[in-house]
Amino acid sequence: MTQHLELLSPAKLNLFLHITGRRADGYHNLQTLFQLLDYGDTLVFKANHSGQIRISGDTLDLAPEQNLITRAAKLLQRDDLGVDIEVSKRIPTGGGLGGGSSNAASTLLALNHLWHCGYSNSALQQLGNSLGADVPVFVAGHSAWAEGTGELLQRVELPQLWYLVVHPGCHISTAKIFSEERLTRDSLPITMAAFFQGASRNDCQDLVIANYPAVAEAIDWLTKFGEPRLTGTGACVFASFDSEGEALAVLQQLPVQWAGFVARGVKQSPVLSALP
């Protein structure tokens, strides 16, 4: 019998991002604070016994070996287990909002349920880490302080704020930014208390501003309304507001050459809320 599950695969913001060192394996150690949003892509899963993983919709024309949804499904697939997955994208690619990682995490969580795999959430986080550094926080499903490569997570209760997220129309490769020699890689670790006192930044921001004029322009524009910051390696920038109305009022003034949306920060991923 076909089983059906529809999930909102959420975007995330990095409220700050400090790079504290480069590891021997080429990855970077970091500190960050992930804020999940009530905005994201929609994934519809229909499990079956076809033995095939079929993806339709907004799949970005990726080859199976590059598609994190396919790779996540194959980590759990056994015998004749199959699934049809329909993807409706809203999270921009190359924006620093974690769309691909979120989709992979949603796939792990959905198929663990539909295929009755029996993995614990912590085991799924470990599987997800093999797909990408941002996948574990989406599997864990709550806003979190992260260290290591992003896999060491500590749940955090954050003030409920609204965010205006602006996409200035360019695509930024995370791999390219992290390979730049000018990237700051020696930030000293901070405490959570220091973050809440304002002692933080995004170590990628100055480098991205220097290389992507559209990001610099978006940050300059947002400065009129708040304290903007780059999320991840960009290209999206954001500012926080106390109410939805305040954020929407600024969105209405957004220059026509950019895209943007307003979203609420959430304590728990809508994926976890939707799972039976």
From TrEMBL:
- Which BP terms does GO give this entry? isopentenyl diphosphate biosynthetic process, methylerythritol 4-phosphate pathway; terpenoid biosynthetic process
Cite the GHMP kinase N-terminal domain residue spans from the record.
67-141
One example of the protein's molecular function in GO is: ATP binding
Looking up Gene3D superfamilies in the UniProt record yields:
3.30.230.10, GHMP kinase, C-terminal domain (3.30.70.890)
Pfam families linked: GHMP_kinases_C, GHMP_kinases_N
Q: Which UniProt keywords apply?
A: ATP-binding, Isoprene biosynthesis, Kinase, Nucleotide-binding, Transferase
Sequence ranges assigned to domain GHMP kinase C-terminal in this UniProt record? 199-254
This protein's source sits in the domain of life called: Bacteria
Q: Which residues form a coiled coil?
A: none
Q: Which InterPro entries match?
A: GHMP_kinase_C_dom (IPR013750), GHMP_kinase_C_sf (IPR036554), GHMP_kinase_N_dom (IPR006204), IspE (IPR004424), Ribosomal_Su5_D2-typ_SF (IPR020568), Ribsml_uS5_D2-typ_fold_subgr (IPR014721)
What catalytic reaction does the record list? 4-CDP-2-C-methyl-D-erythritol + ATP = 4-CDP-2-C-methyl-D-erythritol 2-phosphate + ADP + H(+)
| EC number(s) on file | 2.7.1.148
Catalytic positions? K12, D134
Which residues are noted in the entry as ATP-binding?
Answer: P92, T93, G94, G95, G96, L97, G98, G99, G100, S101, S102
Q: Pathway, per Swiss-Prot/TrEMBL?
A: Isoprenoid biosynthesis; isopentenyl diphosphate biosynthesis via DXP pathway; isopentenyl diphosphate from 1-deoxy-D-xylulose 5-phosphate: step 3/6
User: Which HAMAP family does UniProt cross-reference here?
Assistant: IspE
The family assignment reads:
Belongs to the GHMP kinase family. IspE subfamily.
The protein's role, per its UniProt record:
Catalyzes the phosphorylation of the position 2 hydroxy group of 4-diphosphocytidyl-2C-methyl-D-erythritol.
Record's PANTHER family? Answer: 4-DIPHOSPHOCYTIDYL-2-C-METHYL-D-ERYTHRITOL KINASE, CHLOROPLASTIC
Protein name per its UniProtKB record:
4-diphosphocytidyl-2-C-methyl-D-erythritol kinase
- Species of the source: Sediminihaliea albiluteola
